[in-house]
Input
Amino acid sequence: MPAMNGIEATKTIQDPRLANLPIMAMTANAFEEDKHLVISAGMNTHLGKPIDIVKLFSTVQDFLSNTERNR
Output
């Protein structure tokens, strides 16, 4: 992203009103330390590139299911 990276963006949108907003990292940086970095920044999960479409849809479905349960 030209203005900020995903870590900075995540920290910017952390707001109590958006507490249920899932944030997913999708990056080629797939080392364990990269995964820990995005999780510690407040993202919910990390998907490495190239994206596994089945895993992507499964992850989104999990987020949607959890959102429905928490209503």
Notes: The CA atoms of residues 8 and 41 lie 8 Å apart. Residues 21-69 form one domain.
